[in-house]
Design brief:
- Chain A contains 22 helices and two strands.
- Chain A has helices at 7-26, 38-43, 50-61, 64-77, 84-108, 114-122, 125-156, 168-184, 187-215, 217-232, 245-259, 263-270, 275-284, 286-304, 315-323, 326-363, 370-394, 397-411, 415-423, 429-447, 465-488, 495-498, and strands at residues 455-458, 461-464.
- A two-stranded antiparallel ribbon of chain A has the order 1-2.
- In chain B, α1 (2-15) runs antiparallel to α3.
- The radius of gyration of chain B is 14 Å and the shape is elongated.
- Helix content of chain B is 75%, strand content 0%.
- Chain B has one domain.
- The chains are: A mainly alpha (508), B mainly alpha (57).
Chain lengths: 508, 57
């Protein structure tokens, strides 16, 4: 089991893992609050200033799976994998324009989740339930994929297990994570995110300086990657093929629209101390996107380094083992593994808040509040992690990847309810529910096949299925809303929109 | 209007794939496709910063 273990790398790895475990428990005393209140446990009391939010959202959005999957895609197909860059360019203008306002509404009315907002805004608990379930179902496979990222680096350190021991390190790591998340809530990943993000910056900067020096510069890297793609043929290369351009654009747009609707992103945003903290982060968070671009380049370096990989997801770990001393590989692997813990914790908290507020409370126990509400959420955060672990232990990895892909297509379908709902009162709850269901159904139908494909034909081009289904969703939501307005003409009033006051940006 | 235009500009640049899907001109060995998109990341942050400063005034 540990005969081939790289002890030097493993020791550094375990040391950092122990450090963040301590932090996870200590975090319960940080910015002290009553952790028996859901907004304290699940949103850190909404007291994270601009700096903490920068680390927390950075740790939340740029996950371990991203660090493994983006370079894997670039290694496999080249230019198309770079769609992650326009995607991350699109998300911050959107964050700046929309989410400070959503924060203000949620603070004023003590909303913790997207479902809370929908319920308060439209007064339709079925729409709120649909929004909540969409978020829950999309988040589960995302948590599972964080485990895949973690397992890749544990494997790379030479751990080989038989039978039930195969996943022992992963299981232990997840149990520890579950315990301190239960105790400290969102404060745990917020504190650990400091360590994780600094480690990621260090290992990425080292990689993009040291590896090119050893490979003869960036020119040589692009040349050998180009030659490798030429030999491989198909839809690969250093540039996009004509047929890849619309998929590239629509995938970037669709992924950007979905990102901040995920429960874990919203949790990170709503935990900020105010609209000003969110605005400043829309300016400062792109620093992580530059790191992501550098990580993506590692995929091309894999070709220049002559790595022959049966699984492209091994490209980053193998590059480190090849070019760095073992102790530094251990450091980089620890960064990736901790990079899985932070989002996994926030995702489980986001899912727990959502389940407690929008499923359990309205449909099972309407009198739920205070310590009892927080208790349900804590238990759910553990259940969600056990579920994700079970998916990885019992199902093939492909199952989680397919579900995550579908999850993205589903998540974007709540865009009209949240974003249109924030700026206008024109849409009716039932119309949005019909549109949401149509979007979920058509998106699933479009993606479905012997192998799930997110890119589907539309006329003479191909586009991202999530965006395609969203247009169907919006068309139905809008036309049904118009019918509702016509029927209710006279009683319709726009008054409630005026109640939503955004905090004056000048005072932030 | 100015705010919306400033926020939309980097988005439109990022989506104008036909404008940057080429190898030349290269920079430090990077094909244009790669360095232009990476450069657009800090530029997009500057556009958002401009809106932020406009709002604070």
């Amino acid at each position: 089991m540990i005969d081939n273990l790289n002890w030097e790398a493993a020791s550094v790895f375990i040391a950092f893992f122990a450090l963040v475990t301590v932090l996870g428990f200590v975090a319960s005393r940080w910015k002290a609050g009553d952790l028996n209140q859901l907004h304290e446990w699940g949103l850190g009391g909404r007291r994270f200033g601009p700096w903490v939010t920068w680390f927390l959202l950075g740790g939340d959005l740029y996950t371990a799976y991203t660090v493994i999957a983006v370079p894997a895609l670039v290694y496999a197909v080249g230019a198309f994998g770079f769609f992650a860059i326009p995607y991350t360019i699109l998300i911050y203008p959107l964050l700046f324009a929309v989410f400070p306002k959503l924060w203000s509404v949620c603070r004023e009315r003590e909303y913790l989740t997207a479902g809370d907002f929908v319920l308060g805004h439209f007064g339709n608990r079925w729409l709120a339930l649909a929004v909540a379930i969409t978020g829950l179902v999309a988040t589960m496979p995302y948590i599972a994929l964080q485990l895949v990222g973690m397992e890749k680096v544990i494997e790379a350190m030479g751990f080989r297990g038989e039978g039930i021991w195969a996943h022992a390190p992963l299981t232990i790591a997840f149990i520890i994570l579950a315990v301190y998340t239960y105790r400290s809530g969102l404060r745990a990943p917020a504190m650990i995110a400091f360590v994780k993000d600094i480690m990621i910056y260090i290992f990425v900067i080292a990689a993009v300086i040291v590896i090119p020096i050893k490979l003869g510069g960036y020119g040589a890297i692009f040349d050998s990657a180009g030659a490798a793609f030429e030999a491989k043929g198909g839809n690969t290369g250093l540039l996009l093929k004509e047929a890849q351009i619309w998929p590239y654009i629509t995938l970037a747009v669709g992924s950007a629209m979905a990102l901040f609707l995920y429960p874990h992103s919203l949790t990170g945003i709503l935990a900020a101390s105010g609209p000003g903290a969110i605005r400043r982060n829309a300016i400062a968070l792109p620093a992580y996107s530059i790191v992501l671009a550098m990580i993506a380049l590692l995929g091309l370096m894999g070709h220049a380094a002559g790595l022959k990989l049966s699984n492209p997801q091994d490209v980053v770990p193998q590059l480190f083992l090849k070019f760095f001393p073992d102790w530094f590989s251990g450091f980089a692997f620890a960064a990736i593994a901790i990079g899985a813990l932070v989002p996994a914790a926030i995702m489980s908290i986001g899912a727990a808040n959502t389940f407690t507020r929008n499923v359990w409370k309205p449909f099972v126990n309407p009198s739920l509040e205070g310590a009892e509400e927080a208790f349900i959420a804590k238990v759910v955060s553990v259940v969600v992690k056990v579920g994700a672990l079970a998916v990885i232990l019992l199902m093939p990895t492909k199952f989680a990847i397919d579900l995550q892909l579908l999850g993205g297509v589903w998540m974007i379908q709540i865009f009209p309810a949240i974003i249109f709902g924030l700026f206008t009162r024109l849409f009716s709850g039932w119309a949005l529910l019909a549109g949401l269901i149509a979007g979920l159904a058509s998106g699933t139908y479009l993606v479905w096949g012997p192998a799930l494909t997110p890119i589907v034909p539309l006329g003479s081009v191909s586009v991202y299925a999530g965006l395609y289904a969203l247009t169907i969703n919006i068309a139905i939501s809008a036309s049904l809303s118009i019918i509702v307005i016509m029927m209710k003409r006279g009683s319709f009033s726009d008054a409630s929109v005026k109640n939503y006051s955004d905090v004056n940006p000048g005072s932030s | 209007m100015l705010r919306a235009a400033l926020l939309l500009t980097p988005c439109l640049l990022a989506l104008c794939v036909w404008g940057y899907n080429s190898l030349e001109p290269q920079l430090f060995g990077f094909p244009f496709f790669f360095w232009s998109q990476i450069l657009l990341i800090p530029i997009s942050a500057l556009f958002i910063l401009a809106v932020y400063l406009l709002e604070r005034r």
